[in-house]
Amino acid sequence: MIANFFKRLTEAPKDSLQGEDARLALCALLVRIARADAHYSDAEAAQIDRVLVGRYGLSPFEATALRREGEEVEETAPDTVRFTRAIKDAVPHDERIGVIEALWQIVLADGARDAEEDSIVRLASNLLGINDRDSALARQRVTARS
Description:
- The protein is built from eight helices and no strands.
- Helix 2 runs antiparallel to helix 3 (42-56).
- It is an all-alpha fold.
- It has a single domain (19-145), classed as Orthogonal Bundle (TerB-like), CATH 1.10.3680.10.
- The chain has helices at 2-11, 19-35, 42-56, 60-76, 81-90, 96-108, 115-127, 132-145.
């Protein structure tokens, strides 16, 4: 299953990665950020579930199942670029700031920012066509809602 996902991710023509594959790519990116500081906390896992419920209208059970699948994908993924490419192809530019806000929700879920987490958010933002200023504003909105 994971091998088929990576095959679709690397061989799919532009704009063909949709639905569940795009969701799985975002989920794996969220897990990658949560694991970036070498401490994947229960708070971060729960926040990923909340993001998935809110973004995709999943039930809590479905969100947990998707997160677990995302954890498996993230473990075997060679780089972050593949996830962001899939997300960029599937999410219109004007909706990508919501993706960045989701990334910041995970970074801030455990109450501490880490340089590795910040680095992945910066990379993902740039690859998604979101500048540093807009990413910082997204972080501020997430912080204000917390």
